[in-house]
Amino acid sequence: MLLTYILSFDVAAIFICGITLYYIFSNGLHKRKSGRIFVVYIIFTLIATIYDVIGSYAIDNYGLKSWISLSIVRNSNMLDHLFRYISIFFYLIYMIEISLSLKSFNKKKLWFKILVFLPFGISFIIILLNARFNTVFEIVELSNGRVEYVRETIGIGILYFVIVYAVAYITYLLIKCRSFFSLKQLLSVISIVPLTIFGLFVQYFKENILIELFTQALSMILIVASVETISEQIDPKSGIGNYRRFMVDLKRIYFTKYSQHILIVKIKNYHELYRMYDLKKATAYLREMVKILTKEYKKLGVKATDLYSLGNGVYAVLMNDKAVEGITDSIHKKLNSEMVDGFDFKPVGGVCLMNCLEDFSSEHELIAFINAYKNLTKYDNKLAKYNEIKNDPTFIIETNLDSIIDTGLQDREFEVFYQPIYNIKENRFTSAEALVRLNSKKYGFIRPDMFIGYAERNGRIGDIDNYVLETVAAFVSGPDFLHLGLEYIEVNLSMAECIDPLLITRIEGIIKKYSLDTKRINLEITESYDSSNRLAIEATIMRLKELGFVFSLDDYGTGYSNIERFSKLPISIVKIDKSLVDEAHTDSMKSVLNDTFKLIKDLKRETVVEGIEEKEQLEQFKALGATYIQGYYFSKPIPHNEFIDFIKKNNVNMEVVS
Questions:
Q1: Which tens digits make up the pLDDT trace of 564-588?
Q2: CA–CA dist 260, 321 (Å, integer)
Q3: CA 365, CA 108: separation in Å to the nearest integer?
Q4: What is the C-alpha separation between 245 and 257, in angstroms, rounded?
Q5: Would you give the DSSP letter of residue 241?
Q6: How buried is 114 (Cβ within 10 angstroms: 0-12 exposed, 13-18 middle, 19+ buried)?
Q7: At CA 193, angle to CA 246 and CA 179, rounded to 5?
Q8: Hey, what long-range contacts does 238-242 have (CB within 8 A, 24 or more apart)?
Q9: What's the pLDDT at 430?
Q10: C-alpha angle 623/624/626, rounded to 5°?
Q11: Helices (H), 100-176
């Protein structure tokens, strides 16, 4: 009895292949090497499926359709087998690329590569020999004028063995390189194993159900949805590899020991781009910049294996070419010019060249270096190499800040300094701002902007804030505080801390420990906090107000002041930033300051003017109606004991400062 082939699974597979190809090309996923190999795999699977449909249809309709000849039946079925195994071969190539990478695989010994690929060579020969010797199948003409597809057991057995072999090697690669993949990705790429086994089993025992290629197509969908997907590897702004893809490729480099150079390009004024242009135009600039950089690689004959955006204006290029000097110098020159026509934006940044394996023992060390390098202002607008930077004292501190902060807190290397604040109405010092300093026994004095910025970025600011608050709480709860005639001490409260659900608990613990009168501490908050966390931050501020704390608004004038937000928060004092003070002599700033002080007065808030360094500035802000004055005109920030001596001396003898 002749079988009638069921073509519906093949038709579905053709549809899946077409949709998958459209998705890959429309989203630019074919630009990466892995994407291009995957495209080849899909195309050969699609061709195999088309020939499977033609061959099966030809068998079913031989003798019924005049155009179907015996050669069409034989050749279409042979090509179906050939392209099917070519597609499996390219799937194996794809798996090697996304796990070991073909570059590192090419470094393997010749015998190993022959061992991996020889079974496929044998399968191709067996299939091609079928035209003459019927090594895989035979098309038998029947007495009724029809034909039948008859398998050759040995040939089919060899071909099935090749599939099992490929599945086994793919499984080995996935186990060996499992750390490169998320669980979702791992399950997706390994899906071809059970699906292929299921398809082989069904089609072996139910020859007329053409499901084998359909199972391959199903695994395609899973791979595109997890491995070859935009969110997994493409930065939406620049259109190049994202940070996640960069980390996977770095892991692969250290796993395979395939040495590569890496070029880090940083644009320090990256955020200015988004202040100058809207999102659409800024994104257009970044994409055009990437095109220009890519052209530079091609002009100098240097092949860039991959480009990546690491976020916040930092880009990386992996190169396996030895001739990197020319490209490094060229990119540096391009970076410090108006790169893109039609844009007034001039990038400011630097370029740093290093070797992954020679300079770093792991991807974690390399990432730590990149994070430190991007914050080093010393190397802005410079062309640098890793060896030039690694012994730089600032760099050494930047890369060891975690342990420096730990040691500083443990060994009390942190110290709270106080900058006196002068009360104009009372003609004496009634408060001060607490400022943290770090004097490491190993590294010496470390600038606050270095360790505070790092602590805010890396979740350590809470430890430092807690140390400062506890130190100040101990001071204001002691006998010296009231004898000095002080009213309160200002303490900075990091906005990053305000979203920590444990902040209130920690502060309540400090209040209880020192029997703290909370009105003796004024918490300084900044006006430019993250709007995405606005509700959580404002809820924390209101809870602290219930505990009795009063608040100052710090750095007023450094950003776009949100009057509505300012008026709703429980702010008692507004601190005028030094940047306004420095420009206070200009006519335009005088007008701005007049309006600012009138607004603050109308809102019934008091003012602290920061950064006063000259008597003329003091008199100008007195005339504007300032309540408090802070700055080097009176005193720089000084240690605890010096501060007490200063207050004792000057609050008794005010002619020194008035």
A1: 556 677 888 888 888 888 888 888 8
A2: 8
A3: 27
A4: 18
A5: B
A6: exposed
A7: 30
A8: 238/286, 238/287, 238/289, 238/290, 238/309, 238/315, 239/28, 239/287, 239/290, 240/290, 240/307, 240/308, 240/309, 240/315, 241/32, 241/306, 241/307, 241/308, 241/309, 242/308, 242/309
A9: 92
A10: 100
A11: 102-105, 110-133, 153-176
Query: What are the CA-CA distances from residue 564 to residues 390, 531, 570, 657 (Å)?
Result: 48, 13, 12, 37
Q: Residue 1: which pLDDT band, with cuts at 50, 70 and 90?
A: very low
DSSP sequence for 476-543: HTSHHHHHTT--EEEEE--TTGGG-TTHHHHHHHHHHHHT--GGGEEEEEES---GGGHHHHHHHHHH
Phi, psi of 315 (to 5 degrees): -125, 150
Instruction: Check if the beta carbon of residue 465 is closer than 8 Å to that of residue 451.
Output: no
Cβ pair 292, 339 in contact under 8 A: yes
Q: Name the 3-class secondary structure at 349.
A: strand
Give me the helices (H) in 569-624, please. 578-582, 587-602, 615-624
Interval 355-378: pLDDT, tens: 888 888 888 888 888 888 887 777
Q: Are 137 and 130 in contact (CB under 8 A)?
A: yes
Tell me if 555 sits within 8 A of 574, measured CB to CB: no
pLDDT reading at 323 higher than 60: no
DSSP character at residue 614:
S
> Which residue type does 50 have?
I
> What gap in Å lies between CA 302 and CA 341, rounded to an integer?
24
For 384, the token pair is: 């640098």
Query: Which residue's structure tokens are 């000057």?
Result: 650
As a whole number of angstroms, the distance between CA 197 and CA 204 comes to 10
What is the model's pLDDT at position 253?
86
Place of tokens 């793919």: 170
Backbone angles phi, psi at 291, to 5 degrees: -60, -40
Give the residues across from 317 on adjacent strands.
263, 307
Q: For 599-620, what is each residue's pLDDT tens digit?
A: 888 888 899 999 999 999 999 9
How confident is the model over 28-87, as pLDDT tens digits? 778 778 889 999 999 999 999 999 999 999 988 988 888 889 999 999 999 999 999 999
* Residue range 486-507, pLDDT digits in tens: 999 999 988 777 878 888 999 9
pTM confidence score: 0.60
The C-alpha atoms of residue 202 and residue 610 are separated, in whole angstroms, by: 80
- CA gap 181, 184 in Å, rounded: 8
Ordered alpha helix ranges (H), 206-263: 212-226, 230-233, 243-256
Tokens encoding 346: 């001039």
